[in-house]
Amino acid sequence: MAMASSWRRLPLLLSALVLALSVLLAAQADIQRYQFDVTTRGRPSTRANGDRVIVNVANRIGHNVTIHWHGLKQRRNGWADGPAYVTQCPIQGGGSYAYDFNVMGQRGTLWWHTHIAWLRATVHGAIVVLPARGVPYPFPKPDAEAEIILDTYALQLQWGKTYLLRIINAAVNDELFFSIAGHTMTVVEIDATYTKPFSASTIQLSPGQTTNVLVRADARPGRYFMAVKPFNDVPVPVDNKTATAILQYAGVPTSVLPAAPRLMPDTNGTGFVAAFHDRLRSLNSARYPAAVPRSPWTGTCCTPSG
């Protein structure tokens, strides 16, 4: 399973793609400097109150490449979005480019990845946009947090603690089901937008989608499988395999066999997906209102091309 955590970071299998990135974050007159190599997991962590982010990318391979900041709205700096031949020319081998953008009005889990042809399926990592200083989460504060992307690992928990898992579907074209054996997840955010919390034993993620869940480590201490399998509702071939990783309680030896998750939805489980989506609601609180236009304007725009 493609996963990564706050506590354990592993090199990518595709380590032939070597990019050196440096991140400069500014937060309320503070300047924080980050240096990381995207052959390992990078975690640009910034605030939601207008921080400026500068990422210097050095292309050390023989292929053109760009970096896309998936889900960042790029207000007033669309040229930094990253899709090759759309918002920029690609960075040629041996060249470099500085992405310079502001994070405005967002908080939550997003991610970054290369964005040119099928190099999109190579290097990637999490973007965690923290609330502004002094602003709490709109749910009980977790004891710890971890990112779960597509990369093999085992996640260790302490019994009795609550964890915020930032789950990212980094599969290029696959919708996925995700489940943790013996544990219930509380969904609190999807695509960097807070939701009304609800419980689920299995969640569904679209390609590129992020979902934050709270998990209470209150099961019998042991080892439990985390599993993903594809969701596909069209009559085309799909790689119908289940990938697993390990959720392990501290102090439990690795010789203990992991418990398997309860039966997951069928590959074409449209009924489950519809019911899951029906439970999604905006938080719509005093701090995070759902500002829906009451008098929407409807129009059609046609753009000639050719």
Automatic annotation (TrEMBL):
Belongs to the multicopper oxidase family. Keywords: Signal. GO terms for molecular function: copper ion binding; oxidoreductase activity. It holds the Pfam family Cu-oxidase_3. Residues 1-26 form the signal peptide. It comes from Dichanthelium oligosanthes. This is Laccase-2. Coiled coil: none annotated. Residues 49-131, 151-251 form the Plastocyanin-like domain.
